[in-house]
Design brief:
Blueprint (H helix, E strand, L loop, with lengths): L4 E7 L2 E8 L4 H7 L3 E8 L12 E7 H6 L3 H12 L3 H11 L5
Antiparallel strand pairs: 1-2, 2-3, 3-4
């Protein structure tokens, strides 16, 4: 396992803590021939995000996927922007703007 990198990034005014481990398991790398990366994304105050209602997400992906975006920050930002296009997120976002009487 390689050292975990911790980043703080801002997405749409929400502070996120991202922990990124480029090679989660040396054994996996030796057997499969590539590194499996691990990311955790936690929103400040556990605010809802497009890919998690709880404000926390743990995600495994091949390291090459993260590298395609220039690293963990680029990967997470692209992931958020992609998921923010979903109907469910747009409905949530629009509902949060609208005041409700009931």
């Amino acid at each position: 396992m390689t050292k975990t990198e911790t980043l703080t990034i801002i997405w749409n005014g929400i502070a996120l803590t991202v922990n990124y481990t480029p090679c989660y398991s040396n054994a996996f790398r030796e057997i499969q021939g590539y590194s499996m990366a691990h990311l955790t994304v936690e929103a400040d105050g556990r605010q809802r995000l497009p890919m998690t209602e709880t404000g926390f997400r743990s995600h495994f992906t091949p390291k090459a996927n993260v590298d395609e975006y220039g690293g963990a920050e680029g990967f997470v930002m692209a992931w958020l922007e992609h998921e923010a296009q979903s109907k469910a997120w747009k409905k949530y976002r629009d509902g949060a703007k609208q005041l409700s009487l009931f």
